[in-house]
Design a protein that fits this description.
The complex is a heterodimer. By secondary structure, chain A is α+β, with helices and mostly antiparallel strands. In chain A, strands 1, 2, 6, 7, 8, 11, 12, 13, 14 and 15 form a ten-stranded mixed beta sheet that branches. In chain A, strands 5-4-16 form a three-stranded antiparallel beta sheet, with no helix packed on it. Chain A has a two-stranded antiparallel ribbon with strand order 3-17. Chain A has three domains: about 5-290, no CATH class; about 300-410; about 420-475, Arc Repressor Mutant, subunit A (Orthogonal Bundle), CATH 1.10.10.410. In chain A, helix 5 packs across helix 6, helix 9 packs antiparallel against helix 10 (about 385-400) and helix 12 packs across helix 15. Chain A is about 40% helix and about 20% strand. The termini of chain A are far apart. Chain B is of the alpha/beta class. The mean pLDDT of chain B is about 95. In chain B, helix 2 runs antiparallel to helix 3. Chain B has an eleven-stranded mixed beta sheet with strand order 2-4-3-6-8-7-14-15-13-9-12, with helices on both faces. Chain B contains 16 helices and 15 strands. The radius of gyration of chain B is 22 Å and the shape is globular. Classes of the chains: A alpha+beta, B alpha/beta.
């Protein structure tokens, strides 16, 4: 039997605010000792109150706008009540029925050429809980993460393959970094994903019970875990069984799913409005000032690069993989004023390698777009040859001098002055009478040996074409 | 003639300390000595409820050393020529529902038996910054859940200074009893349904519940967060105003504390009541009770002594130039308690979640098999009866299948109650009131053991005060005379949002006009 796979993803996105959502502790505790980045507010001591960090709202509004969601001018915080040792207040401050935004979608272009539109069901702001660790039969709790601002975003069951799920996460991660609202590093938990998976006979219009896979900490793991779960569900159904609505945990090391709990009944979180916080009133002025920061989005820019600059889709995709790189590309194109494809080639072949080697983003390079444009022009004009041009990239980056200055101070300009070159060639011929004789007796392949001598003497600056012409003229003449 | 310092009011003490007539240390020592005479043993866990039945027992924790150190700091400021603040050397007590750094902050519950707060509540910090001297933490109903103080885990619970066989009221019972018995000129209390005004009425002192948001709640261990307010208990209107002046205003730790500027309350006091419109509502002269068997509501008029005290106050104010407006309809008053039952319990159940034995407070000493058993035992042993009742009801009415029926309906009633007030305070409306004059409580202080145990009837004692908490408006209870048995009667003024200044003005005018009445000269029994 053929099955259709139905996948919905629930993502938690850690916002990169400076401080936590309701207190002034640092938001990021990566690498800090347990329980060192806490205060009475984030550990919920008796009597404390939350005070909203507006920056978390602003970042959430940017995401909502980028997802083309409807943003509510008035939204509320609610309490989600449950007991857990790492939830210090016994409730999580979240949003429920009047969340910041609703609706929206993300277009996910698939490598096969089609585009999957994934609708968004829910988008709300909430605080993170702490972490629990079991060690030697003891339960240890780290509250550092309590109060870190999160956005919970839940998709509709619109995803049909494990690959689509992976692509959705790749595009979401790209978008979050592009907007500058999250580091979106799955390994560090900045972007967390639970996958809801069910299968149904191809063509069916009902939904079967789904399982929820938790604890998937990389995009590859999401793909592998979903594939494993689809196989498990198909086996279950084919052997006459039924899929039960379990919560499963993915074990990265063994590549196995294990049952965490059955989920026959919905937990009742007894939501009610958080009385300690005022509603979020997103008035027009605030909204406008936030949306003024909304940049052109990656997929729109990719399309524009293809149309405006005639780039291939593959190149356009690479150049819009990251916002700083795409800005860099456009700034270089402007400074260069020549064929944008030429800029794209330089960037994709050489500058990208530099970025990877140095672990820098394009915006952080000493090799500015103006310098890169200058280097390409130096090559175009014939002032330097291509290998020298490429060497200039590294030199500019490490010396922070302009490429023209470097060319001047290191005498890198190509020796194309015919008089000087002719003199050099004559000198080499005069010093090597035997080779000249052999050439003239028919060993014309020796032209390459003469070329090498000239290049060595000029340290590569000689223009190869002019040198060859001169040598031939002198040897044949 | 030398003063008996503990009997002095806050503004008198501050004036004398600032002038150098007394040092803050002298004042503090005098009040500590007075406390040693009248208070008896402090409340303690597993204490005997009947110990020393003629004493006040206002305190849970007396912080004498800390008080003397603070007093010395005030004196040092004065010696250095610095401004010691408007409450210079004024001794005050703090309801043990507020955190004070380094002190036990117990909420009168076993579950916080070992909780030493690592931070100080904003209103406490502001009173200290104004030169006030904290004498200690006073008793209350467990987590403020009650109207008599009998539910405190710390026994003996406070007794009424006018008649120690009577309750002081609650939940700020320790505060009201302390102020009435001269154990500190001021006390910091909280009011969720009447918890400042009712004990103030029972103990013959002034109790102010400010507008919601006027004073920060940071450091107030929450009961019903949307209803809780921080306010003052004092022996006269001037002191209550002085205290509010020091506490009110925005707080970076409380997003619900409003940023409106704080007016000069003291300057407004002597302006009189000429031209103010003060309303009387028949809905505040009857009380609605549910029949314990059938659940049917029935109405009962208030006792004549209560009615008479309010009518007398109306006459006094009319003679001072106020316009008395009768028959003001407040039709939703009778639904205040049922709505409060639901809303406060939903919030309370959630607010009490954090007391789980994991991080601080009581954890069961028994062996437990798993996490859930630790929760159950710690909470089962740590909470008293009142928190348990409120958790049960709160969980029930907020459950997904019931919340529309109970919680959402209660919120609608709350809106209707708010509209009652908006209509009569509307400056363009039919009544255009500046304030509503009502009784504070349906009865004077009841006997210890008289009502306790019947949580429903106890709650109906808040019927005349709770509407202000639903609506968020300010209310003040003023001593309005003594009944035939010599028990204090309270009258209440309710006003629109942020009208504390007007309420103080009316209260002050009433106080001045009745200064020579015989009951004013009568002292509480314990200080006679």
């Amino acid at each position: 039997m053929e099955y259709e796979i139905i996948i919905g993803l629930e993502t938690h996105i850690q916002l990169n605010t400076t401080t936590k959502i309701f207190c002034s502790c640092k938001a990021d505790s990566w690498g800090e000792a347990p329980n060192t980045n806490i205060c009475p507010v984030c550990v919920g001591l008796p009597g404390v109150l939350p005070v909203l960090n507006r920056s978390a709202v602003e970042k959430a509004v940017l995401l909502a706008a980028a997802m083309q969601a409807e943003i509510r001018p008035l939204s509320y915080f609610d309490r989600k009540n449950y007991f857990y040792p790492d939830l210090p207040k016994g409730y999580q401050i979240s949003q429920y029925d009047r969340s910041l935004a609703y609706g929206g979608h993300l277009e996910v272009p698939m490598p096969e050429g089609y585009v999957r539109r994934v609708r968004i069901h829910k988008l709300h702001i909430e605080e993170d809980a702490g972490k629990t660790k079991n060690e030697n039969g003891r339960r240890l709790i780290d509250f550092n993460r309590c109060g870190v601002p999160l956005i919970e975003m839940v998709t509709a069951p619109d995803i049909r393959t494990a690959d689509e799920a992976a692509q959705y996460l790749i595009r979401l991660r790209q978008l979050l970094r592009w907007l500058g609202i999250s580091e979106a590093d799955m390994e560090k938990g900045h972007l967390r994903c639970d996958a809801n998976v069910s299968i149904r006979p191809l063509g069916a219009d009902y939904l079967n019970p789904k399982t929820e896979i938790k604890n998937v900490n990389s995009i590859d793991a999401v793909r592998t875990a979903i594939e494993a779960e689809v196989k498990r569900q198909s086996r279950e159904v084919e052997s006459g069984g039924k899929v039960k609505p379990w919560t499963l945990s993915w074990d990265e090391d063994s590549g196995r799913l294990s049952k965490m709990r059955s989920k026959e009944t919905e937990a009742d979180y007894r939501y009610f409005r958080e009385p300690d916080l005022l509603p979020i009133r997103l008035d027009e002025a605030w909204r406008q000032s936030i949306l003024a920061e909304l940049p052109e989005l990656p997929l729109a820019r990719r399309a524009r690069f293809m149309g405006q600059y005639g780039l291939l889709e593959y190149d356009a995709d690479l150049l819009t993989g990251e916002r700083s790189l795409s800005d860099y590309f456009e700034q270089t194109v402007q400074a260069y004023q020549g064929d944008p494809k030429r800029v794209a080639n330089w960037l994709l072949n050489d500058v990208m390698r530099m970025l990877n080697e140095r672990g820098k983003t394009a915006g952080a390079l000493n090799l500015t777009p103006q310098y890169l444009a200058e280097i390409i022009r130096l090559v175009d004009e014939g002032t330097v040859n291509t290998p020298t041009g490429k060497a200039l990239l590294e030199k500019t980056e490490s010396t922070e001098k302009s490429p023209r200055e470097i060319v001047a101070s290191e005498k890198l300009a190509r020796v194309s002055d015919t008089a000087a070159l002719r003199q050099m060639c004559e000198k080499i011929l005069a010093e090597n009478p035997e080779q000249v004789a052999r050439y003239r007796s028919g060993k014309i392949g020796l032209i390459g040996w003469f070329m090498g001598q000239v290049m060595q003497a000029t340290r590569g600056k000689a223009d190869p074409k002019a040198t060859r012409e001169l040598l031939q003229e002198l040897l044949d003449g | 003639m030398t003063d008996y310092i503990p009997a002095l009011s806050a503004h008198e003490i501050a004036r004398k300390v600032r002038r150098g007539e007394y040092t803050a240390r002298q004042v503090t020592e005098a009040v500590l000595a007075h406390i040693a005479r009248v208070d008896g043993c402090p409340g303690q866990l597993d204490g005997d409820p009947n110990a020393e039945p003629d004493r006040v027992h206002a305190f849970i924790t007396l912080t004498a050393e800390r008080a003397l150190a603070q007093a010395d700091a005030v004196d040092a400021k004065i010696a250095a020529g610095e401004d010691p603040g408007p409450l210079a050397g004024v001794p005050f007590t703090v309801k043990d529902i507020f955190t004070v750094k380094g002190t036990l902050s117990s909420a009168a519950s076993r579950i916080l038996e070992n909780f030493i707060a690592p931070y100080t509540a904003t209103p406490v910090a502001r009173l200290e910054a104004a030169g006030g001297v904290i004498l200690g933490k006073v008793n209350l109903d467990e987590f403020t859940f009650g109207s008599s103080n009998e539910s405190s885990a710390y026994q003996p619970s406070p007794r009424n200074p006018w008649n120690p066989a009577r309750v002081p009221g609650g939940s700020s019972g320790g505060s009201a009893a302390a102020v009435a018995a001269w154990e500190g000129a001021l006390s910091l209390g909280t009011d969720t349904a009447g918890s400042i005004r009712q004990p103030a009425a029972f103990c013959g002192v002034v109790g102010l519940k400010p507008t919601y948001g006027r004073v920060s709640r940071y450091g107030l261990i929450a009961f019903g967060s949307s209803l809780d307010t921080t306010g003052s208990l004092a022996r006269n209107v001037t002191d209550a105003a002085l205290m509010l002046q020091a506490m009110a205003g925005a707080d970076p730790h409380d997003g619900t504390a409003v940023t409106l500027p704080v007016p000069d309350y003291l300057a407004a006091l002597p302006r009189g009541v000429e031209g103010l419109r003060i309303g009387l509502s028949p809905d505040y002269f009857r009380i609605t009770y549910p029949d314990p068997q059938s659940g049917e509501l029935y109405e009962e008029p208030l006792p004549d002594e209560i009615r008479a005290a309010v009518m007398h106050a109306a006459e006094v104010l009319a003679a001072q130039g106020a316009e008395i407006v009768e028959d003001v309809p407040m039709p939703h008053t009778r639904y205040g308690i049922p709505a409060y039952f639901v809303i406060s319990r939903v919030e309370a159940a959630s607010n009490l979640h954090r007391f789980d034995g994991v991080k601080y407070g009581y954890r069961t000493p028994q062996k437990v098999r798993d996490l859930h058993e630790m929760y159950r035992k710690s909470r089962g042993e740590g909470f008293g009866l009142q928190p348990k009742l409120r958790i049960l009801m709160g969980m029930y009415v907020s459950a997904a299948q019931y919340s529309a029926q109970y919680y959402n309906r209660a919120l609608k009633i709350r809106t209707l109650i708010r509209r009652d007030f908006e209509a009569v305070f509307d400056p363009q409306g039919a009544y255009r009131l500046d304030a509503l004059l009502t009784p504070t409580t349906p009865t004077p202080a009841f006997p210890i053991g008289g009502v306790y145990g019947d949580s429903v009837l106890m709650q109906y004692a808040d019927q005349l005060t709770v509407a202000a908490n639903h609506a968020g408006i300010p209310g003040i209870s003023l001593p309005g005379g003594l009944n035939a048995e010599g028990l204090p009667l309270g009258i209440q003024l309710l006003g629109p949002d942020f009208s504390e200044s007007t309420l103080f003005r009316i209260g002050y005018a009433y106080e001045q006009a009745t200064a020579e009445e015989a009951w004013r000269a009568t002292r509480p029994l314990v200080v006679r």
